[in-house]
């Protein structure tokens, strides 16, 4: 048997100061607990997240276009210039013109407004209805109310979003409004599910137990503990639902069930470009490209936010 | 001096610019049993992972790791070459038996697999040898165990299977990373014996990683103490425990010893360790005197007890029925509590001891009105909890507050510390300004800086978070404090501080303490009375010293015997 004994010469054996204090930057909590050998919480490292950055850039591009279109566009969107029709890209018309001689770039800019409006309104509808339903279902888990909510949710989930929108436009007439409401209703189940699973998780934690032991009421627990802790997941879901809504609105407008003439929309531009696909394919290229940019942007943003906000992926420090 | 089996020289592990392990050197001789002790974050697991070539990709290791009989530095070996070594010459047992086995593979196959992969046995032999190995780790009915899936085995049994896999190819070095931390004490003792026997029988070198000094003393011959990425001291078990040289080792030793207290009846902490004399130092008189002082201070609140029971539990039964997993399946019924009767007088410190699954947490939840009992009655301060109106329940909860086990899960990560602590005051309609005063007072009482109020929980360490948790429980001045394993997730040195704090606060606020723990040593230090629980029943109850020194029920006796203590470890060695 070897019995060696060695003392690290680099350490002062009486170095109680070193034992007591942690090497943390000034102001860190390590200094609070005198004499503690607790590993002080390390400052969390914020790494730049590629999908978050790219997502933000793409979404930012669409948002800036929409905002700028309120103060400036190269041309009036409804102004037809028959002498300039079906032109290619030039200094005067960056993206060319359509069959009436309207400037494509101007239309792309105006189209981004509708795209964002549809996304915002439908996601807001879905979130405002879905999240409370999900929280209620999660907090009354295994009760009759929870069962009713979640089965209703499953019913809605089984109903295709586009079909719902078509039904709405058949009943209320085609237009941006019915399309937004239909898409919003169709996205409720996603939010309700995310909110419910998040709520179940939060409700099983010890801090909710502590809050119950401290006499906090159900509503107080829902607003002070559950909601802030599932907010991250809900934001991620919102970002994904936004992308889906953008795509669905383009699809509806393409079918003539969404935004109606003469309002500019990317979906309608795609539809109108069909007959010129052989001669002027860029008429389809530009709206298609921007739909792709918006959808990709919101999806990447959702991915990036998920990495940063989802508590399951965030390590304890 | 025997030939060294493993030589580690100037091993350095870093993540980018941060050094996690500073240059470290040690050797393990063939057949030698070496313990590596340290607290969470000290770098002990990283060191072993580096030896196995299992470091996570973002960490880099420099230095030399040499294994006798192989050429060159293991750190520079390719993954393929390391893979051939792992499981044959080097093997490892991990901490978490629940996730270390493949849930979809029969246990016998998993044992046989490691022999097939390394071609140390043909498939038929491997199968037969797997059963032998399972028998060697003393699984009851090894043949049946070989056909079982991991979920059909208990935690201790799974850890035995892990050991069987690790020993299958008679490795020259076995690394155990906290192999018994997740196990109950009685199971822990058996698994430790098994590891020691297996290693001695095969002449295998052992690197045993743990944070528990008593455990290391019962398994190892030599100990290395790791502190903040450095091995600060190493020597034989006897030397380390009787004559520790480094400040940190002394502190760790003092803080681990729950039977020794200073003249104020407080446990030693790293800071006060200078006055600590170990049992084995031969200065028994000193510790006895201290123990007397300690028990005197413990006994003091007992005299205050009026005898009138503050908590009265009678014939309490709790049955959970698990929801059916399939439409035609039968609903499972689990009897968590089977007729518990208890009476806790005001001013007592009442310990409830039991292993996992004994129903002690369920009892706490029912006491605090978080779960309704199935049958039986619970009376807390005159309120019948099982039939209380919500107003009665509210007033009862102002009297009874809870400190939870996991300091990471019991604080809402999105709330500031001030809001967390003030939470029990909100339903009491304490005005905002008054709330802030009370929070500041309580923060001071638990030894935290006033500025802590504006920080978030993640900015605090485990011990500090537990202080926050205690502050939240005390802010509304309860009469009863219920603590659910409040120190089991903490490092040893922090544990002593938190236990001292609890002792002080219980005295200061004249609390009745209900303290649930799996650790008999902690309960013995802190409590005046104890109830021992097993499978939903109380098997024995009485005052803590007589239960500890003279257990009547065989289960209590086995619990006492299995609890690793430094004294026993010395006696054995």
UniProtKB/TrEMBL annotation, chain A:
Origin organism is Brevibacterium daeguense
Residue intervals passing through the bilayer: 52-72, 114-135, 155-173, 179-195, 283-302
* Protein name according to UniProt: ABC transmembrane type-1 domain-containing protein
- Where does the UniProt entry say this protein principally localizes? membrane
CDD domains named among the record's database cross-references: TM_PBP2 (cd06261)
Membrane topology, from the record: Multi-pass membrane protein
User: Per the record's keyword annotation, is Cell division included, yes or no?
Assistant: no
Q: Which SUPFAM superfamilies match?
A: MetI-like
UniProt keywords (A-Z) are: Cell membrane, Membrane, Transmembrane, Transmembrane helix, Transport
The record's annotation in InterPro entries points to: BP-dependent_transpt_permease, MetI-like, MetI-like_sf
Locate the region Disordered: 1-35
Q: Which domain of life is it from?
A: Bacteria
* Protein family: Belongs to the binding-protein-dependent transport system permease family.
| UniProt domain ABC transmembrane type-1: residue ranges | 112-302
Q: In which compartments does the protein localize?
A: Cell membrane
Automatic annotation (TrEMBL), chain B:
**Start and end of every ABC transporter domain?**
6-253, 311-560
NCBIfam families xrefs:
PRK10419.1 (NF007739), PRK11308.1 (NF008453)
Q: Provide the taxonomic classification.
A: Bacteria, Bacillati, Actinomycetota, Actinomycetes, Micrococcales
Keyword Nucleotide-binding in record: yes
Organism for this UniProt entry: Brevibacterium daeguense
Q: Which UniProt keywords apply?
A: ATP-binding, Nucleotide-binding, Transport
Its recorded name reads: ABC transporter ATP-binding protein
Gene Ontology molecular function terms on file: ATP binding
Q: Which family does it belong to?
A: Belongs to the ABC transporter superfamily.
């Amino acid at each position: 048997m070897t019995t060696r004994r060695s003392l690290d010469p680099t350490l002062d054996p009486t170095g109680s100061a070193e034992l007591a204090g942690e090497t943390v930057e000034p102001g860190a909590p390590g200094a609070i607990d005198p004499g503690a050998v607790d590993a002080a919480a390390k400052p969390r490292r914020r790494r730049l997240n590629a999908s978050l950055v790219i997502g933000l850039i793409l979404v930012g591009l669409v948002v800036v276009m929409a905002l700028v279109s309120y103060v400036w566009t190269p041309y009036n969107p409804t102004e037809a210039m028959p002498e300039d029709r079906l032109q290619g890209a030039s200094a005067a018309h960056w993206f060319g013109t359509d069959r009436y001689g309207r400037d494509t770039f101007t239309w792309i800019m105006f189209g981004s407004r509708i795209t964002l409006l549809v996304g915002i309104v439908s996601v807001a509808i879905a979130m405002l209805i879905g999240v409370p339903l999900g929280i209620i279902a999660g907090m009354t888990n295994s009760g009759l109310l929870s069962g009713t909510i979640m089965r209703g949710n499953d019913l809605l989930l089984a109903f295709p979003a586009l079909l719902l929108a078509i039904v709405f436009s058949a009943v209320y007439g085609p237009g941006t409004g019915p399309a937004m409401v239909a898409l919003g209703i169709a996205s409720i189940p996603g939010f309700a599910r995310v909110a419910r699973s998040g709520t179940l998780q939060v409700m099983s934690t010890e801090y909710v137990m502590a809050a119950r032991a401290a006499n906090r009421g159900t509503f107080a627990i829902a607003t002070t503990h559950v909601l802030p802790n599932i907010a991250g997941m809900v934001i991620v879901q919102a970002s994904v639902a936004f992308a889906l809504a953008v795509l669905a609105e383009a699809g509806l407008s393409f079918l003539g069930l969404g935004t109606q003439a003469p309002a500019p929309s990317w979906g309608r531009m795609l539809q109108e470009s069909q007959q010129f696909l052989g001669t002027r394919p860029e008429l389809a290229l530009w709206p298609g490209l921007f739909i792709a940019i918006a959808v990709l942007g919101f999806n990447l943003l959702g991915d990036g936010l998920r990495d940063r906000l989802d508590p399951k992926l965030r390590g304890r420090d | 001096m025997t030939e060294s089996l493993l030589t580690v020289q100037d091993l350095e592990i870093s993540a980018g610019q941060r050094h996690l392990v500073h240059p470290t050197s040690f050797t393990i001789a063939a057949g030698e049993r070496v313990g590596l002790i340290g607290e969470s974050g000290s770098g002990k697991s990283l060191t072993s992972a580096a030896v196995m070539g299992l470091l996570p990709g973002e960490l880099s290791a420099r230095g030399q790791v040499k294994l006798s009989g192989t050429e060159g530095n293991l750190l520079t070996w390719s993954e393929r070459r390391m893979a051939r070594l792992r499981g044959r010459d080097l093997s490892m047992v991990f901490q978490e038996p629940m996730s270390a086995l493949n849930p979809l593979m029969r246990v016998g196959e998993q044992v046989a697999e490691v022999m097939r992969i390394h071609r140390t046995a043909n498939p038929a032999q491997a199968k037969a040898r797997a059963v032998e190995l399972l028998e060697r780790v003393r699984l009851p009915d090894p043949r049946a165990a070989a056909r079982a899936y991991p979920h059909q085995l208990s935690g201790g049994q799974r850890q035995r299977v892990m050991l069987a896999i690790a020993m299958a190819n008679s490795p020259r070095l076995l690394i155990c990373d906290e192999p018994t931390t997740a196990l109950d004490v009685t199971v822990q003792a058996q698994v430790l014996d098994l590891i020691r026997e297996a290693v001695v029988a095969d002449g295998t070198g052992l690197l045993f990683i743990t944070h528990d000094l008593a455990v290391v003393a019962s398994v190892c011959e030599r100990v290395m103490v790791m502190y903040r990425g450095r091995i600060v001291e190493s020597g034989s078990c006897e030397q380390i425990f009787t004559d520790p040289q480094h400040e940190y080792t002394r502190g760790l030793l003092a803080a681990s010893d729950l039977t020794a207290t200073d003249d104020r009846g407080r446990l030693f902490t790293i800071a006060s360790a200078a006055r600590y004399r170990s049992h084995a130092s031969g200065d028994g008189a000193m510790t006895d005197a201290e123990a007397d002082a300690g028990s005197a201070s413990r006994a003091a609140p007992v005299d205050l007890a009026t005898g009138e029971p503050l908590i009265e539990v009678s014939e309490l039964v709790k049955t959970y029925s698990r929801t059916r997993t399939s439409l035609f399946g039968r609903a499972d019924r689990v009897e968590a509590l089977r007729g518990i009767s208890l009476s806790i007088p005001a001013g007592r410190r009442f310990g409830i001891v039991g292993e996992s699954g004994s129903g002690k947490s369920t009892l706490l939840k029912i006491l605090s009105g978080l779960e309704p009992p199935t049958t039986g009655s619970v009376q807390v301060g005159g309120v019948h909890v099982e039939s209380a109106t919500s107003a009665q329940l509210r007033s009862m909860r102002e009297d009874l507050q809870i400190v939870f086990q996991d300091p990471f899960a019991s604080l809402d990560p999105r709330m500031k510390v001030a809001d967390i602590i003030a939470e029990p005051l909100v339903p009491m309609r304490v005005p905002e300004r008054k709330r802030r005063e009370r929070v500041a007072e309580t923060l001071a009482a638990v030894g935290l800086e006033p500025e802590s109020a504006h920080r978030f929980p993640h900015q605090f360490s485990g011990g500090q978070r537990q202080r926050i948790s205690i502050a939240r429980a005390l802010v509304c001045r309860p009469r009863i404090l219920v603590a659910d394993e409040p120190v089991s997730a903490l490092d040893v040195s922090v544990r002593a501080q938190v236990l001292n704090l609890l002792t002080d606060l219980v005295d200061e606020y004249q609390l009745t303490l209900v303290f649930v723990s799996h650790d008999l040593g902690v309960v013995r230090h802190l409590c005046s009375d104890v109830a021992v629980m097993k499978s939903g029943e109380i098997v024995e109850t009485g005052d803590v010293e007589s239960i500890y020194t003279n257990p009547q029920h065989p289960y209590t006796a086995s619990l006492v015997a299995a609890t690793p203590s430094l004294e026993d470890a010395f006696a054995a060695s």
